[in-house]
Amino acid sequence: MDTSGLYRVVTGFAHAAPGWVQRAFEIWTEYGLLLFGVLFAAVWWRARGGRRGPRATALALLAPAATAVAYAISEALKYTVGEERPCRAVAGAAASLVPCPPPGDWSFPSNHATVAGAAAVALVAAVRRLAPLVVPLALLMAFSRVFVGVHYPHDVALGLLLGGSVAALLALALTGPAATSGSEVRNVPGCRMP
Question: Are 108 and 158 in contact (CB under 8 A)?
């Protein structure tokens, strides 16, 4: 899949953008994933103690775990595919706004997009009302990786798809067993669970 032309368009647009827009994307692409971590903690806090039921607790605990599994799969794919970063490989493209990762730090799929996609799907599975917040944040994270010049568009599109799919499959497969296990532990005589 060759998305070099679209990469050139996006990075050209990035270079034409005002400096404050460039800086905002640089900050978002570097630190934006931390917001998903804060949301994981908030969802867990909301579900803690089982007051919302064992399913809510299971989903709150599975969200970061599913995201970690998606990241691990993404990392394995990176080393299997070995696609060079576009900031080194695409002739005639604008220079990346952030330093190009070193050789051997492969491009496909985007770990940032994978993590954002997995986190968004896992958080929505746990709290549906988060969808209008986390879905745009995941898309913005993916776009930012192309905007700053370190990923091809196909890297981020497939990263979002990979992360979202892994999170959805794990939520479907593990929520029931995790909720049942949590209920059984709470019902053990003498066991005091919050």
Answer: yes
Q: Tens digits of per-residue pLDDT, 95-105?
A: 899 999 999 89
Rounded to a whole number of angstroms, the distance between the first and last alpha carbons of the chain is: 51
Residue 156: name the closest of 80, 83, 90, 91 by CA: 83
Q: What is the pLDDT of residues 100-132, one digit of tens each?
A: 999 989 999 999 999 999 999 999 998 899 999
Record the pTM: 0.85
Whether the Cβ atoms of residue 102 and residue 20 lie closer than 8 Å to each other:
no
CA distance 40 to 47: 11
Taken as a whole, the chain contains a residue count of 194
Is 74:159 a contact under the CB 8 Å cutoff?
Answer: yes
